[in-house]
């Protein structure tokens, strides 16, 4: 391998060590995230699309990119925040919390409340059942459906996790001040209301058809 590569790598490591992102006990993953962020910040979406001769809605593309990045960062943060409770460290905690808030949902209701496809939601529910955190029973009005509730173990797990979820949520909000958090919350709720409607009514529609809803 060309030694210039190692020289360039050392320069990057040195820059990382002098950046605000370098903290005591940093890992290779921290360095990788810093490199990704540096590369992202050095590229202009406007330049990218102009170079490729594409006509694009730059603001909307940037929103899409930021939402995707935030989704990835949040998943990493949640796994880290709930590392001592591995049963909840992926999507499971959202199901547990929803069922705590709305007891006795059917399986499909709980999956839809979390915006998942049926296959993904079914896998999460199976894990929660295997962990003994939820239990199911036949719906008295419709024996074909099953309703879910937290078990005693699930209730205990919920109370154990509250502090860690709260801390993780605070970190996820980052350095936004109170007014910025309130503004962001209003916008996120508005955006999620739109996508909840799309999920419910137009789940199997083409993107071009969904686009007509906002034009």
Describe this structure in words.
There is one protein chain. The protein is mostly helical. The chain has a domain at 87-163: Arc Repressor Mutant, subunit A, CATH 1.10.10.10. Helices cover 66% and strands 5% of the residues. The chain is built from ten helices and two strands; from the N terminus they run αααααααββααα. The protein has helices spanning 3-17, 28-42, 45-51, 58-81, 92-101, 107-113, 118-130, 152-172, 178-201, 207-211; strands at residues 134-138, 146-150. Strands 1-2 form a two-stranded antiparallel sheet. β1 and β2 (146-150) form a beta hairpin. α4 (58-81) packs across α8 and α6 (107-113) packs across α7. The longest helix is centred in the first third of the chain and has 24 residues, at 58-81. The relative contact order is 0.07. The model has no long low-confidence stretch (mean pLDDT 86).
List the keywords.
mainly alpha, Arc Repressor Mutant, subunit A, 215 residues, globular, 66% helix
What is the CATH first-level class name of one domain? Answer: Mainly Alpha
Backbone structural class: mainly alpha
**Proportion of residues in helical segments:** 55-70%
Major sheet details:
2 strands, antiparallel
User: Could you give the order of the helices and strands?
Assistant: HHHHHHHEEHHH
Determine the number of helices (DSSP H or I, runs of at least 4 residues). Answer: 10
Work out the strand percent: under 5%
Looking at the overall shape, the CATH architecture of one domain is: Orthogonal Bundle
Identify the overall geometry: globular
Nearest-angstrom radius of gyration?
Answer: 22 Å
Give the uncertain stretches in residue-range form: none
Strand order of the largest sheet: 1-2
The CATH H-level homologous superfamily of one domain: Winged helix-like DNA-binding domain superfamily/Winged helix DNA-binding domain
| Mean pLDDT across residues | 86
Query: Would you report the number of β strands?
Result: 2
């Amino acid at each position: 391998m060309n030694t210039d590569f190692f020289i360039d790598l050392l320069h990057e490591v040195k820059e990382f060590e002098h950046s605000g992102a370098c903290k005591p006990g940093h890992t290779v993953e921290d360095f990788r995230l810093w490199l990704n962020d540096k590369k992202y910040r050095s590229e202009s979406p406007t330049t990218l699309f102009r170079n490729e001769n594409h006509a694009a809605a730059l603001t909307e593309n940037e929103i899409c990119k930021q939402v995707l990045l935030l989704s990835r960062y949040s998943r990493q943060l949640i796994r880290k925040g709930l590392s001592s409770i591995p049963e909840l460290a992926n999507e499971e905690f959202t199901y547990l919390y929803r069922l705590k808030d709305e007891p006795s949902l059917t399986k499909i209701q709980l999956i839809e409340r979390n915006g998942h496809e049926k296959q993904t939601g079914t896998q999460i529910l199976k894990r929660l059942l295997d962990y003994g955190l939820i239990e199911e029973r036949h719906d008295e009005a419709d024996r074909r459906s099953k309703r879910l509730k937290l078990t005693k173990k699930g209730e205990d797990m919920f109370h154990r996790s509250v502090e860690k979820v709260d801390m993780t949520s605070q970190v996820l909000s980052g350095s936004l001040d109170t007014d910025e958090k309130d503004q962001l919350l209003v916008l996120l709720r508005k955006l999620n209301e739109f996508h909840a409607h799309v999920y419910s009514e137009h789940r199997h529609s083409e993107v071009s058809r969904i686009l007509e809803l906002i034009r």
